């Protein structure tokens, strides 16, 4: 078990297709279901065929091991150049149909913004974090983004920067603000779901561009900025129902890529297992905020999750485990590292 507040080595900058650590990560993700069925402790190295091969636990070639009830854990030395990247992704690789995972990610400035007021967000974080997003897409069965992200960035939501399959693309647009001209609705790179409030779907409607229309339960949300003297009414959808729909489609790993409104919706609904925040050395001053949740009166009511810290190029990534408090009693174990330490 990793301790709270542990700093990690820098994620190496390299071509993921050629990165031996990425080969291990992808192989671990592919083998998780099989290992969960075996229910035995097992250690693995990576073969020349890029497949895992079982070895003795004390074999010097061992890189990772499967621990029943826990999942994958890295066993190679921390000074090994492959260690940080493998360690970062193993919690996601450990997910199975019986123990699924939903992970959210946001890249923000030092002062907590993901974009300027005009919506410019390319690029708040650096290239290594962009590669990280593509890796997460490749490891997950579905990637979810909100209407604001599609409107601002017109993303493809594919894994074109890394080796790995494209996930199911899910565009969450509760109030049906988007047009069907965006790229995600007009290519055949991956299957796409267009999700909106059921009250806004038309009878018999099946397609939105090339995407499949999905209507979910929703209700009006009047807590919006005023337009003139009227209240701008939008729709919200039940994100728990969306998770259920994706699980029913066999999506054990779900990646909520953004933006801030969408990740906050999942966080407020308690539908995230992990939250990753990439913090860039950038000061925007004011703009579009990252996480926004209902205010708490006292700090004791605020969530303080267990976390790991990775240097990712020029950014710092906090990988937060939002479920650790549900399985572990008491305070987190003390960090044995020095109280003050320069890591960059």
Task: Quickly describe the structure.
By secondary structure, the protein is an alpha/beta fold. 21% of the residues lie in helices and 28% in strands.
Show unreliable segments. Answer: 222-233
CATH superfamily membership of the domain at 102-294, which one? Dihydrofolate Reductase, subunit A
Strand elements, count: 21
* Major sheet characteristics: 11 strands, mixed
As for the CATH topology of the domain at 102-294, it is Dihydrofolate Reductase, subunit A
First-residue to last-residue Cα separation: 25 Å
Judged by helices, strands and strand pairing, the structural class is alpha/beta
Total helices: the number is 7
Provide the residue-averaged pLDDT: 87
The helix fraction, in percent, is: 10-25%
CATH class of the domain at 102-294: Alpha Beta
The rounded Rg comes to 21 Å
Spatial shape: globular
CATH architecture level-2 label of the domain at 102-294: 3-Layer(aba) Sandwich
Q: Strand order within the widest sheet? A: 1-20-21-18-6-17-8-9-10-12-11
How do the helices and strands follow one another from N- to C-terminus? EHEEEEHEEHEHEEEEEEEEHEHEEEEH
Task: Work out the strand percent.
Answer: 25-35%
Helices and strands in order:
Blueprint: E1 6-11, H1 20-38, E2 42-46, E3 52-55, E4 64-67, E5 71-74, H2 83-93, E6 101-108, E7 113-115, H3 127-139, E8 142-146, H4 147-153, E9 168-172, E10 192-197, E11 207-208, E12 211-216, E13 218-221, E14 226-227, E15 230-231, E16 234-237, H5 239-248, E17 253-258, H6 260-268, E18 274-279, E19 288-289, E20 306-312, E21 315-321, H7 324-327
Helix pairs in contact: 1-2
